[in-house]
């Protein structure tokens, strides 16, 4: 597959760098989502995110989509299902969950993503994790636990769970299903696939946005909300999805999903740099364990069946 127009070929063929950038963009997205919680309704935020992304992307992607339309039409309902799971449901449920749950709980449940991917990959395609992949995932989970508990395992006993946590788990599970099923996408240009899923995902979101509006939920237009709209439409939407889809294409779902463990690593770095949090020993230990787990998962991986 050729790289999208204007994308450096050297970058687009480096899955580990692409997936690392995805985790960075999504870590910032969680912070943004939490920051505007209460001022922007969650469904409206998702609608503006994907509507804005579609408007920005369509002029560049339309020529490719026209050429690839026969491929889209051959698996139209699969493409719609990928739009529903990867765009409409995942992000909307994630923003909704952030109205009720905190960053610590969100990071904890986000770390279950690779396990969900492994489950769906096995159920749908009979993919097995290698011993090295299993050890790597467990090592990364341990690293996430160290960061979440601040090095105190007893803190796990005092975490408060609420309805937002359930929505977050459901969101992660749905996106893991999308990740596992990406291998079924028809051959086409990356921009063709991305713009179709974004446009259909935004359209499928319209009824829920109308219901939210009818219930009286309104957003506040402030400099912060405007900057949030600009960020979520470009970085965690267009760039992150483009990079994530390409990363899964190059190394497979089970190998790509452990990079999601970098989200709490970047989240901690953001807190240290911009929120004044002091770096501690548990940050370093957690980061080392997560990166070591990702390394093991990549080094001893199994080949994904065609």
Can you characterise this structure?
- With 306 residues, the protein is mostly helical.
- The chain has one domain.
- It contains 13 helices and no strands.
- Helix 3 packs antiparallel against helix 4, helix 4 packs antiparallel against helix 8 and helix 6 packs across helix 8.
- The longest helix is centred in the N-terminal third of the chain and has 33 residues.
- It starts with 8 loop residues before the first helix and ends in a 7-residue tail after the last helix.
Write the layout of secondary structure elements.
Elements: H1 9-12, H2 15-35, H3 42-74, H4 76-97, H5 103-110, H6 113-125, H7 131-149, H8 163-181, H9 190-214, H10 223-251, H11 253-256, H12 262-274, H13 281-299
Helix pairs in contact: 2-10, 2-12, 3-4, 3-9, 3-10, 4-8, 4-9, 5-8, 6-8, 7-13
Q: Which radius of gyration do the C-alpha atoms yield?
A: 19 Å
- Per the principal axes of the C-alpha atoms, what is the gross shape? globular
What is the terminal separation in angstroms?
Answer: 16 Å
Q: Could you tell me the mean pLDDT?
A: 85
Largest sheet: none
- What is the string of SSEs from the N terminus onward? HHHHHHHHHHHHH
Count of discrete alpha- or pi-helical segments spanning 4 or more residues: 13
Give the count of structural domains. Answer: 1
């Amino acid at each position: 597959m050729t790289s999208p127009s204007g994308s450096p070929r050297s970058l687009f063929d480096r899955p580990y760098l692409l997936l690392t950038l995805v985790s960075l963009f999504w870590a910032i997205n969680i912070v943004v989502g939490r920051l505007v919680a209460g001022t922007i309704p969650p469904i409206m935020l998702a609608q503006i995110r994907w509507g804005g992304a579609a408007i920005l992307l369509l002029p560049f992607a339309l020529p490719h989509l026209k050429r690839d339309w026969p491929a889209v039409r051959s698996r139209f309902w699969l493409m719609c299902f990928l739009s529903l799971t990867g765009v409409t449901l995942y992000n909307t449920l994630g923003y909704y969950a952030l109205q009720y749950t905190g960053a610590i709980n969100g990071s904890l449940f986000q770390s279950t993503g690779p396990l969900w991917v492994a489950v769906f990959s096995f159920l749908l395609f009979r993919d097995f994790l290698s011993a090295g992949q299993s050890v790597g995932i467990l090592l990364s989970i341990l690293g996430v636990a160290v960061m979440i508990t601040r090095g105190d395992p007893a803190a796990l006993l005092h975490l408060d769970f609420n309805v937002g946590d359930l929505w977050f788990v459901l969101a992660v599970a749905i996106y893991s299903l999308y990740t596992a099923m990406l291998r079924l996408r028809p051959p086409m240009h990356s921009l063709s696939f991305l713009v179709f899923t974004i446009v259909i995902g935004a359209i499928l979101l319209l009824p829920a946005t109308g219901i939210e509006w009818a219930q009286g939920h309104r957003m506040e237009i402030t400099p912060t909300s405007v900057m949030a709209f600009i960020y979520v439409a470009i970085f965690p939407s267009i760039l992150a999805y483009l990079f994530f889809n390409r990363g899964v294409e190059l190394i497979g779902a089970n190998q790509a999903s452990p990079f999601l463990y970098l989200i709490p690593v970047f989240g901690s770095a953001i807190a240290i740099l911009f929120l004044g949090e002091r770096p501690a020993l548990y940050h370093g230990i957690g980061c080392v364990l997560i990166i070591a787990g990702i390394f093991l998962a990549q080094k001893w991986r199994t080949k994904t069946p065609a």
